[in-house]
Write a structure and sequence with these properties.
globular, 3 helices, alpha+beta
Length: 78
């Protein structure tokens, strides 16, 4: 049985990124944070073109992607 994981691509001093983090924290969602500017290879692998980008993964497959601060879409990741 594989578990789902949430990956959040963000950068410092990004208001929408902070809003997404606050939302996920409020909902008690566990996520890992990656700065695509510090890890461009990973950003390319996940085809991240803007921040914030939140990706829901399971068994190496992308199940969902939310770009920007969209509470309704973020809620669907839970």
């Amino acid at each position: 049985m594989s578990t789902k994981r949430i990956i959040k691509f963000e950068k410092e001093d990004c208001s929408p990124c902070n809003m997404v983090s606050e939302y996920l924290d409020r909902k008690g969602m566990v996520y890992e944070t990656i700065n695509p500017f510090n890890d461009p290879e990973l950003a390319m692998q996940f085809r991240v073109r803007s921040v914030p980008t939140v990706i829901l993964m399971e068994a190496g497959e992308e199940l969902a992607r939310v770009i920007g601060y969209k509470p309704d879409e973020l809620a669907a990741l839970a």
